Amino acid sequence: MLKKKIKKKKTSKKEKIKAVFSGEKIYSNKKQAFALYEKSRFGETKEGKIYYSSYEALYLLEKKKIEIKEKTKKIDFEKLLDKLKKEDKRIEIKYTIFKDMRTKGYIVKTALKFGAEFRVYDKGKKPGQEHAKWILYPVKESDVLTWYDFSAKNRVAHSTKKNLLIGIADEENDVTYYEIEWVKP
User: Fold this and answer.
1) Is 162 one of the catalytic residues?
2) Burial 145-178 (b: 16+ CB within 10 A, else e)
3) Domains of the chain, CATH where assigned
4) Which of 45, 64, 69, 94 has most Cβ atoms within 10 angstroms of its Cβ?
């Protein structure tokens, strides 16, 4: 009796986006990066590449959707976080808030040109097609926010025609949001 060899069909996992960490930039020119950008707006398109913010790269690494290499060496989540901490001491709290918002379905982009940490797009809205609804400031529960700080943040939100959103993370990384908007009596 002859035994037939049965070839098992390999189950194809979604291929991870291959990205490069060079200097302070994380980017990819792979088709999967462009597909994810079109679907979920991860990254920014520039010069035929997708450039990721540090928060986006951390998020995609944690979700196992991206593989980042520096020269020929793979960088895991912890290693990337350590590298980013050297440039930004508050990266962990910022990432906690970013991750919470993305997990809830919002698109979150940096807002440095607005004088804020993040701009947040309402669910279903896409950068480049719609305007962000909020300017978001990440804060630790133990941080002190003075009235001067609060007023300055509120002025930035008002001048950019966005609502102010303060994200406060507690010690367990649970996040509570407070939305502040101008009201004319």
Assistant:
1) yes
2) eeeeeeeebbebbeebebbbbbbbbeeeeebeee
3) 15-88 (3.40.1170.20), 90-185 (3.40.1350.10)
4) 94
Active site residue 158: no
Q: What is the pTM of this model?
A: 0.86
The whole-angstrom separation of Cα 185 and Cα 182 is: 10
**Catalytic site residue from 25, 131, 161, 178:** 131
One digit per residue, pLDDT tens: the chain, 185 residues? 444 444 444 434 578 999 999 878 999 999 999 999 999 999 999 999 999 999 999 999 999 999 999 999 999 999 999 999 999 999 999 999 999 999 999 999 999 887 889 999 998 888 888 999 999 999 999 998 888 988 888 888 888 889 999 999 999 999 999 998 777 77
Catalytic option among 121, 133, 137, 153: 121
Q: Any catalytic annotation for residue 131?
A: yes
